[in-house]
Amino acid sequence: MKTDHPIVKERIYPRQDTRVIIPAKVNSIRTRNLYLRPLELADAADLFEFRSRQDVADWLWSKIPHRNIQETEAYIRKKIFTTPDASGALGRQFTFAMISGTDPTQKVIGAVGINGLAPSPSIGYGIHPDFWGKGFVSEAVAGVVDAWKLPRKEPESESELSSGPEKLFAACNKANIGSVKVLQKNGFEIINEAHLEGDTVVSFALMRPST
Ligand SMILES: CC(C)(COP(=O)(O)OP(=O)(O)OC[C@H]1O[C@@H](n2cnc3c(N)ncnc32)[C@H](O)[C@@H]1OP(=O)(O)O)[C@@H](O)C(=O)NCCC(=O)NCCS
After folding, report:
1. N-acetyltransferase domain: which residues (predicted)?
2. pLDDT score of 1 more than 80
3. Residue 203 placed within a domain
4. For burial by CB atoms within 10 Å, which of 68, 130, 196, 209 has the most?
5. Does the predicted model carry a pTM greater than 0.90?
6. pLDDT grade, residue 3 (50/70/90)?
7. Which one of 56, 136, 138 would you pick to mutate in the ligand 1 pocket, going by the greatest count of ligand atoms within 8 A of its CB?
């Protein structure tokens, strides 16, 4: 779920100090059925094919589908973190284009990645309806969670020391059964429920897998 909605930022995700150090060049990920490579602006046309659909937008905030490719390009640009990682680096990102591992045309059928670093890292995803229910997003989330085992800065301040193990967060519409299942299958646990624009938003947390 996107994190730039002010209510989402303030109420859905708790604050967590940024300790992750994101490489300037993020590696691609291979899972059983998928090839996940860093998302590029040039992927906008493929992403627009599903971001422009109402049956996809129904599960997002806002529920307005993208009207043109420029809106999809703006969405891709927003995946660049606006807050620094723990090394102080700006302009990093950790979002991947989802491609079937057997598709010679390399068409982008979905996107998955870390929405932002503040107030805490959260994972987001979406896939073209032609590919719903094939286990792809469950598999993609597992790949990204595993790749999120990046170097971390040692805790320095009292607050960092007392904050406990680092977590990865997620949130989705409670009625989005597929998304709830994707998260639960990947070990995310429900931590909160809130109301947003007539929906019940469930937030989830996953302890960062140990490196
Ligand atoms: C929600 C979404 C990400 C699920 O992706 P997916 O690749 O279809 O999910 P998976 O195939 O990995 O399914 C995971 C589980 O959910 C179930 N599931 C998937 N879609 C479902 C649906 N619409 N209704 C009920 N169950 C569903 C699957 O059967 C599977 O269950 P199982 O493990 O018991 O067999 C995808 O439907 C999507 O992109 N929707 C539009 C955008 C969106 O909702 N993004 C997430 C916002 S938080």
Report:
1. 34-189
2. no
3. no
4. 196
5. yes
6. very low
7. 138
Q: What is the CATH classification number for the domain harbouring 160?
A: 3.40.630.30
In a domain, 179, yes or no: no
Closest ligand 1 atom to Cα of 136 = 7
Q: Where are the beta strands (DSSP E) in 55-174?
A: 95-100, 108-116, 122-127, 167-173
Q: Give a yes or no: residue 48 inside a domain.
A: yes
Instruction: Look at residues 125, 41, 35, 109 and name the one whose alpha carbon lies nearest to residue 78.
Output: 41
Total domains in the chain come to 1
Ligand 1 centroid–CA 13 distance in Å is: 22
**Range of the structural domain that residue 57 is part of:** 6-164
In the predicted model, what is the mean pLDDT of the chain?
Answer: 93
Cα 88 to ligand 1 centroid, rounded to whole Å? 36
Which of 176, 184, 186, 202 maximizes ligand 1 atoms within 8 Å of its Cβ, making it the mutation to test the pocket?
A: 176
Angle 136-147/177-185 helices, nearest 10 degrees?
40
In a domain, 174, yes or no: no
